[in-house]
Design a protein that fits this description.
single chain; about 280 residues; mainly beta; Neuraminidase; five-stranded mixed β-sheet; globular
């Protein structure tokens, strides 16, 4: 369901809304609702727009990461997926490695000089040399789908669209542990693109302009940043208004520059990339 048009997905979601009670963001809760878990209510993380940069409006962004001043991005769609290096200031693609047409590119992360990438339904991960983007090897994982990816400096961490996050060894690719993402109302699903920032996992949620801050030890959501009005501030098409996948769709892409303590975000087919201030 992740890759059909957002409009179609929203129509489908209306028919299964009764199954989505645990996915509603914090702002939808009311005073009469009672917590379903012993997880404390997450803090509301304020955000401010710092600046904006050009972004390839044809990039169906699935992963974003800043490492040593280099902005890496992965894009999706069968037949047009790739991994690339991008000039932050201009949005120009500096280097690109196209994927085989049988693959739909998903989340990426860079660790120890290697770039790791998931694929959507192929149960295959790809490892590249981070400098040259030359493919080094592939690996497999059991999940039906691959979504977002990050790392904690030791293990790779990935999502599959459920409430689970999986930690795997970057050499053997064996699972080290997994956590269930939850807030005070229960499980939180549709966890998408990931970034590891100062000991926490920051995550997009598919079909929501929200960023969740997740404790990697417990899976508890400890903070939520509501970025819904970013679109209005920056003239990005409102969520749900895209009529096809050539128009701006969901927010998807979080990159953290540890050297400058800056956070960058973008979305699928967004013509802009933004530096934002959260709690960094």
């Amino acid at each position: 369901m992740k890759k059909i048009s957002l409009y179609a997905a929203l129509m489908l979601a209306m028919t299964i809304s009764a199954c989505k009670d645990n996915d509603k963001p914090a702002e939808d809760t009311t005073a009469t609702e009672q917590p379903a878990t012993n997880v404390p209510a997450p803090a509301q993380i304020p955000f401010s727009l710092v600046t904006e940069y050009p972004h390839d409006a044809t990039a169906f962004t699935e992963g974003l990461q800043m490492v040593d001043g280099v902005l890496y991005e992965s894009t999706g769609q069968y037949g047009s997926s790739d991994v690339r290096k991008v000039a932050l200031a201009t949005g120009k693609v500096l280097q690109k490695q196209a994927m085989d047409a049988k693959y739909f590119g998903e989340g990426i992360t860079v660790l120890n000089g290697k770039l790791y990438q998931l694929t959507y339904k192929e149960k295959t991960g790809i490892v590249y040399d981070a400098k040259t983007l030359k493919q080094l090897q592939t690996f497999s994982y059991p999940n039906a789908e691959g979504w977002g990816m990050t790392n904690d400096g030791t293990n790779l961490i990935y999502s599959d669209g459920t409430d689970e996050l999986f930690f795997i060894d970057p050499i053997s690719f064996k699972e080290v542990k997994r956590i269930h993402v939850k807030d005070q109302y229960g499980t939180v699903t549709r966890i998408n693109e990931l970034e590891y920032i100062k000991g926490y996992i920051y995550a997009n949620q598919w079909q929501a302009d929200l960023i969740y801050k997740i404790d990697p030890a417990t899976g508890n959501v400890v903070g939520i940043a509501d970025l819904r009005n970013l679109r209005q501030q920056t003239d990005i098409l409102a969520l749900g208004q895209a009529t096809d996948e050539t128009q701006p769709e969901v927010m998807n892409g979080i990159a953290y520059d540890a050297a400058t303590n800056k956070i960058y975000i973008t979305g699928k087919n967004w013509p802009k990339l933004f530096e934002v201030k959260l709690d960094n």
